[in-house]
TrEMBL record:
InterPro entries recorded: Methyltransf_11, Methyltransf_Superfamily, SAM-dependent_MTases_sf
Gene3D superfamilies attached to this UniProt entry: Vaccinia Virus protein VP39
Name recorded for this polypeptide: Methyltransferase type 11 domain-containing protein
Sequence ranges assigned to domain Methyltransferase type in this UniProt record: 196-297
MF-aspect GO terms: S-adenosylmethionine-dependent methyltransferase activity
Length: 371
């Protein structure tokens, strides 16, 4: 059993380079192991026995849940239930979901839409599905107004014994940033000048990246102009940054941005919302956008997470009713898909009990090929 000790505190980000054991660097073996441990208490993250949860993919249980969800009256019930569970669990964790939402909906956020929306963008089909219990998926003001509270809630669910939501968020984001930093230092070592955050939503991941790399140029890119409007509105409410964030409304599969122009491309919590064909498209585009030596960082649900494998039937049914492509995400061998895209040194690590961070870099070999 290998342990990874990550000393953390609420200020984990202020001190982003805690000591890591060598296990951080090695590819996880396919055997049960503890991955993350707190400095002063027992391990909190563990892989389960399976490669993917029984409720996902093509197992009989997964098919049964899929059939139930495809029955409209059941789906409507689940959708309502999912919203209720989401909001009440958030508020039990002291996340002021309704207040945060009201604050956005009653603000001038609507004025940002004009500046941020690309009227000629054609949405991929999958994006027009209902998501997260919103009929319009990510294309609505309600989804945009609730996104930050939902993000905080994800952190608290991932690290339930943290003393506060803020602490949970710092751990979840701190461990992710640390995995990126470690990979980049080990395999590239070059400075990070330009960062692209694909699927930036309302900008939470983008701001963490901007704070971690204050001298880099940061771009957040998303398909939802509603989310980007909130991201931009929030910027205007915050102190001016030395590295202002640029927000782009585009499809991450075909960004139209110049090739080899980023040192870090991040996709945080994006892939589980996408069908396999879109995941392949996103990886291919990230590969095109990276400079030689640049790092790609994907963070999302881990199919091997013991916690996710052990979800109760009620919870996994609610989850599947709000995430139309979850089965495709779990079935896809992400590391293998990355290799097929051209990445050569894929590293995957559980950065909290529910999520993995998968990193790789564009080999310098590509310099030789491209000159
Ligand atoms: C869960 S949110 C991401 C949250 C954010 N990255 C964070 O860590 O806080 C997933 C985002 O991916 C975006 N998305 C999905 N498919 C996309 C695509 N093809 N191109 C760009 N954004 C996409 C959605 O609009 C949504 O905002």
């Amino acid at each position: 059993m290998s342990l990874l000790h990550i000393p953390y505190s609420c200020g984990a980000l202020a001190n982003p380079k805690p000591k890591l054991s060598n296990s951080w660097r090695s590819r996880p073996e396919r055997k049960k192991r503890h991955v993350i441990a707190r400095a002063s208490s027992p391990p909190v993250a563990e892989e389960g026995e399976l490669d993917i949860p029984r409720w996902a993919g093509e197992t009989p249980l997964s098919r049964l849940v899929g059939a139930l969800i495809s029955f409209k009256p059941f789906y409507s019930l689940m959708k309502l239930g999912a919203r209720r569970v989401l909001i009440s669990t958030a508020e039990k964790s002291n996340i002021p979901w309704r207040d945060m939402t009201r604050e956005i909906l009653e603000s001038n956020v609507y004025e940002e839409m004009e500046n941020v929306r690309n009227p000629s963008l054609v949405y991929p089909d999958y994006y027009l599905n209902p998501f997260h219990a919103y009929d319009e998926g990510n294309l609505s003001w309600l989804a945009a107004a609730e996104a930050e509270a939902a993000t905080l809630s994800i952190a608290k669910r991932a690290i339930p014994d943290s003393s506060s939501t803020n602490e949970a968020n710092e751990i979840l984001r701190g461990n992710w940033l640390q995995a990126i930093e470690e990979h980049h230092l080990q395999h590239s070592g070059s400075n990070i000048y330009d960062i692209l955050d694909i699927g930036c939503s309302v900008g939470v991941s983008t701001r963490y990246l901007a704070n971690q790399y204050p001298s880099a140029n940061i771009t957040g890119l998303d398909l939802s102009p509603y989310f980007l409007a909130v991201a931009q509105y929030k910027d205007k409410q915050s102190p001016v940054r030395s590295n202002p964030i640029k927000w782009i409304h585009a499809n991450g599969e075909s960004t139209m941005l110049p090739s080899k122009s980023y040192d870090l491309v991040s996709l945080a919590y994006v892939l589980h919302e996408c069908p396999a064909r879109a995941i392949r498209g996103l990886l291919k585009e990230a590969f095109r956008l990276l400079r030689p030596g640049g790092t790609i960082a994907l963070t999302d649900n881990s199919p091997k997470s013991k916690v996710l494998q052990g979800l109760s039937p009620v919870l996994f049914t609610l989850l599947k009713s709000t995430e139309p492509f979850l089965d495709e995400y779990y079935l896809l061998d992400l590391e293998e898909t990355m290799r097929a895209t051209g990445f050569v040194n894929v590293t995957s690590v559980l950065t909290d009990p529910r999520h993995r961070t998968v990193t790789d870099h564009l080999s310098d070999l590509w310099i030789c090929i491209s000159i």
